[in-house]
Amino acid sequence: MKRDANLWMLCVLIIVLFGFGGVVSGGTYLSLFNLQSMAMQVPEIGLLAIGVMLAMCAGNGGIDLSGIANANLSGVASGIFTLSLIDASQDPLLFTIIFVIGCMVIGLLGGILNGIVISRFGITPILGTLGTQMIFTGVAVVLSDGRSVTVGITDSLYSIGNGLIFGIPSSFILFVVIGFVLGVVLKYTPYGMRLMLTGANPKAAAYSGFPSGKIIVTTYALSGLLAGIAGVIIAARNINVKWDYGTSYLLIAILIAIMAGVRPEGGYGRVSTVILSAVVLQLLSSLLNFIGLSNFVRDLAWGALLLCFLAVGRFNLINQILASIASMRSPRATE
Amino acid sequence: MTDKTISEKADYSPDLERKWIFFLFKGRPETISLILLVMICGAVAFINPSFFNMSSLVDIARASVVIGLFALGVFTVLAAGGIDISFPAIGALAMYGVSSFVINVFPGMPMILIILFSVLIGATLGAVNGVLVHGLRVPALIVTIGTQYLFRGILLVFIGTVWLMEMPSQMIDFGKFSLFEIEANSGVTVSLPVYFLVFPIAAITTWFVFNRTLMGRAIFAVGGNSNVAERLGYDLRKVRIFAFGYAGALAGLAGVIQASANRMANPFDFAGIEIGVIAAVVLGGARITGGTGTVFGTVLGVLLVTVVNNVLVLVGIPSTWQRVVVGAFILLAAAFFVLRDRKSAL
C-alpha cells in the first residue's frame, strides 16, 4: 500500500479528470473520437518518459536529457537514409520496415553513446547527456540542412501512428506492450534487480561486484531504443520529422516520471505508474485545450505541477493523507 | 566531492611527474581553456586573417556580454553544488517586465533605476529557486526545469506575448552610448558600446565575492560537500538562496542589457541559450558536481564559446555545424577534466 501511493492517486486522478472533462465539455470530451485522439498522443511522450525513468533509477544523478533530441535524430537520419535507398511509392512495406529498423538502430546507438560517455569516461549524466543532446540535434540539423524531412507518406507507416486495432490506436497498444515487457524485465530479470539496487545504494552495489558499467550502458541503451521508437511514432503521426520537434518534451518527460513517483536520486520507479502518469498528463492537457486555454497556460501549469509533485514526494503527502483518512475511520488503525 | 587530502598527496607521487601534462593543468584547469582559445584564434586567423579586424573583435566582445553575465551566474550556482537552467526565463521575465513597466507606467524612469529594478526582479526569482532547491531536497536540475516553465509561463500568460518595439529612449541611449569608435578600413565605424563594461565589472564583483568574502568560501564549501559544510556550521539555506539569487540578479542584468542593445523586448528571447552557457562554464573548468572553478576560467569559457559561435562562418564551416561543435566541446572538456581528476587521484 505504502509504495503504491502514486499508483492509487493517479487512478483517482484519471477518474476525476474524466468526470470533470465530461461535465465541462458536455460529453464531447468522452466521445470515442476524442478518446482515440488522446490515446494517439500519449505514446511518443510516454516512451521518452520511461527512458527518463530508467536513467533516474540508475541513481548517481542519472538523467537522460537527450531523449527527444535522439528521437528527432533517429527520425531524420533514418528518414533520409531510407528515402535515398527506396522509393516509398513502389515498395511501401519495405520502406516502412527499413525506416523503423533504422530509427531503432540509431536510437540504440545514441543510447549506447550516452552509456559509454557516462560509464567509461565518468562524465556526470547531466553534462554527458547535455553534450550528446547538443550533438544529436546538431547532427540532425546538419543532415537535414535544418529542413523537415517528409517520411510518413506510406500506408503502412501511417497505420503505425494513426491506425486503429479494435478501436484502440495501434501506437497506444504498442506503447502499453513495450511498457509491459519493460516492467517484466525490470521486475524479474537480474538486470532489473541490479539496476534498482545500484540506484538505491551505489556503494553497496559496487562492493557486491555488480558490473556497474554494463548496467549503465544497458540502461541508457534501453532509453535510447525507446527514443528511437518514439522517433518512429513521431514520424508516423506527423508525416514530417524535423530536428526541433517537441521542444517542451524534455520537461514533460521529466514531469511524467516525477508524477509517477520515480525517485530522482535513484532506486525506485515503476513502468506501470509511468504509463498511468503519461495518461493523466494527456488527459489534463486535452482538458486545458477543451476549456480553451492557450499553450502558454499549459506550460505554466506543467511547471507548477512539477514543483507541486516534487513537494508531494518530498513531504510524503499522499501517505500522510491516506494515514489521516485511515485514522479518522478507526483511530487505532494507524499502521 | 573534492577530497583535498588525496589530491595533495598525489602531488608527491612520482607517477604524476611523468604525466607532466596533467601536472601542468592540475589546480589550474583554466590553463587548458586558455590554450584552446589561443589555438582556435590562431587557427582562425591563419585561415582567415580578417578575424583580427577590429570589427569582428568588437562583435565578439559585444556578443560575449549577455552570455558572460549568464555564465557568471551559472558558475556561482555550479560552485555551490547546484545547476540552474531557469536563468533564460528569469532574464526574459525581467527584461520584458521592466520594459513594459517603463513604457506603460513610468516612462521617465532613470536608467540606473531601470537596471536596479531588473536586477531586483531577477534576484527575487533566483531566490525562489534557492528556497525550492533547498526545501524540496531534489536535484536542482529538476527544480529549475520546473521554475523555467513557471517563470516563462508567468511572463507569457500574465505580462504579455507581443514584441515591444517602441523601447523607452533612455534604454536606447544606454544601448547606443559608445565607449570608443574606430574607423574600420572598409569605411564603417565600429563602436564598442559602454554596456560592454558591465561584463568585466560583474566578473570582478564575482571574483571578489568568491575570493574575498566569507560567502564565497561558504559556497565552495557547500558545493564541495554539503554534509561536511553543514557540520562545520555553514547555513546551507542561506548559501543556496544567495547563490541562486546572485545568478538570478545577473540574469536580470543581462535582460536589461539585451533589451537596450537590441532596442526591443522579445518575450521568447533567450530560449535555448542555457546549453551554450553551461558549456561555457564547464569549458572554463568548473566541475558540474560543484566546489571548484574560477571566475577567470569562466570568462575564458565564455570567450571560447562566443568565438566558436562567431568564427565558424569565417573559417568556412556552415553554421549548421555549430551545435555539433559546441556539443563535442562539452564532452571533450568534461572527459578531459574527469581524466585529469583520475590521474591526480592515483
TrEMBL record, chain A:
Keywords: Cell inner membrane, Cell membrane, Membrane, Transmembrane, Transmembrane helix, Transport. The chain crosses the membrane at residues 7-32, 38-58, 65-86, 92-113, 125-144, 164-186, 215-239, 245-262, 274-294, 300-322. The keyword Ion transport does not apply. It is found in: Cell inner membrane. One of its GO terms (cellular component) is plasma membrane. GO terms for molecular function: transmembrane transporter activity. The keyword Membrane applies. It is a multi-pass membrane protein. Its main location: membrane. Pfam families: BPD_transp_2 (PF02653). Belongs to the binding-protein-dependent transport system permease family. AraH/RbsC subfamily. This is Monosaccharide ABC transporter membrane protein (CUT2 family).
UniProtKB/TrEMBL annotation, chain B:
It is a multi-pass membrane protein. The keyword Cytoplasm does not apply. Keywords: Cell inner membrane, Cell membrane, Membrane, Transmembrane, Transmembrane helix, Transport. The chain crosses the membrane at residues 31-48, 60-80, 112-133, 140-164, 184-210, 241-261, 267-286, 293-315, 321-339. It is found in: Cell inner membrane. InterPro entries: ABC_transp_permease. One of its GO terms (cellular component) is plasma membrane. GO terms for molecular function: transmembrane transporter activity. Belongs to the binding-protein-dependent transport system permease family. AraH/RbsC subfamily. PANTHER family: ABC TRANSPORTER PERMEASE PROTEIN YPHD-RELATED, ABC TRANSPORTER PERMEASE PROTEIN YPHD-RELATED-RELATED. This is Monosaccharide ABC transporter membrane protein (CUT2 family). It comes from Marinomonas foliarum. The lineage of its organism: Bacteria, Pseudomonadati, Pseudomonadota, Gammaproteobacteria, Oceanospirillales.
